[in-house]
Design a protein that fits this description.
It is built from eight helices and no strands. The protein is mainly α and 149 residues long. The longest helix is centred in the middle third of the chain and has 18 residues. The relative contact order is 0.13. It comes from Cajanus cajan.
């Protein structure tokens, strides 16, 4: 991610341009990793720090004050934010998409293998009644005691 940022070093970008680059390039780079593994908190913090620094400072090392909380920046534009994806929630959503696919296509070979190996979900109704924090898609995650929220 840092290498990608260095190519924008001499560009004069508005805050809107930086938001666009964060959403289209910086968030797209780790998608493959995030869709299969629960990213460790240290990795998520590093990605967020890179995004935050790029948004407020650009690529220069100048000090600029972040006038808005990062949680607000990550809200949708309708809710008053800038629409930057929350990396932790995005990681969680990508992992749950695989669980959803397992339930929709239980006859697929990969779904059968995962079901036989991890046997956590018997039916969709049981899945809906499970406390979200109690079930973690272990088949794609590194075990962590942290909550995605």
């Amino acid at each position: 991610i840092q290498k990608r940022l260095s190519s924008w070093k001499h560009k004069h970008l508005s805050i809107g341009g930086r938001v666009t680059l964060i959403n289209s390039v910086l968030n797209a780079m780790p998608i493959h990793f995030l869709s299969f593994f629960k990213a460790p908190n240290s990795v998520i913090k590093e990605i967020v720090a890179i995004q935050r620094d790029f948004l407020w400072r650009g690529v220069k090392d100048g000090l600029k004050i972040p006038w808005v909380k990062w949680e607000t920046v990550c809200k949708s534009k309708v809710e008053g934010g800038l629409g930057i994806k929350d990396v932790r929630l995005f990681n969680w959503a990508l992992l749950w998409k695989w669980v959803w696919r397992c339930m929709l296509s239980p006859s697929m070979l990969w779904a059968k293998v995962l079901h036989d190996r991890y046997d956590r979900i018997e039916s969709f109704s049981n899945f809906l009644n499970v406390d979200r924090r109690a079930f973690e898609p272990r088949c794609f995650c590194l075990r962590s005691s942290s909550n995605p929220n």
